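Hey, weird one. I pasted the A-kinase anchor protein 7 isoform gamma sequence into the form twice and got a warning about non-standard characters only the second time. First submission, copied straight from the form history:
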Amino acid sequence: DEKKHLGKEVVKRPRETPNYFVAIPITDDQILDRIEDVQELIFTKEPDLLRAFIPVQTMHLTIIVAHLGTEEEVKKAILALKQSKTKVQAILQGKDFNMTFQGIGQFNNQVIYVKMLEEDQKMLSRIADAVEECFTKMNLDISGSKDFKPHLSFLKLSKAPRWKRRNFRRICADLYKEYEDSYFGTQIFSHIDLCAMHKKKQESGYYYCECSINMGFSDMEESKE
């Protein structure tokens, strides 16, 4: 009403639910093993949270989410991702980018994640901006994307209805305090994937990939996967 009074009536376009996302896969065994250790510890203290765990086979950092409503839009998204390679490699300047993970953080005590070192986050933000720019130029719907904050989620309360039925609305930090400042490991940035949220996952347990771009320098050979 206030906006109408000011003569500015805002027309909101209904936002489509994202069905795709652009991700950096996390495959380093040390990181994945350490995440499983934390999940096992939490499970011993609170078995009802089992359904809230995110399988390590799906571990990734989300860069952007998108709503791709047609096959044509999926093709445009693949093209946008391919076009981003040159921009990203210009940022990397021929050097490997090692992403270091240390410590555990949380969003509203609902999502628990492994933190990335701050200097690595800055580099990743630049990479995310380059990818986002290519998607925007293609006029693709990435309006569902939030401000970029790289995090490696391994537990989401929304996935555990039993826990919610018991009227718990938050995950207590005591459940994982032994690992709160632990070093989890280092992942070499090597791929960016365009993944489908709702298509059947691969045999490995990772998401269905429409396209995977090799970004590594130490091994420029495309992976057989």
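That's the output from the first submission. The warning seems to come from a hidden character in my clipboard, not from the data itself. Residues 91 and 123 are 8 Å apart (CA to CA).
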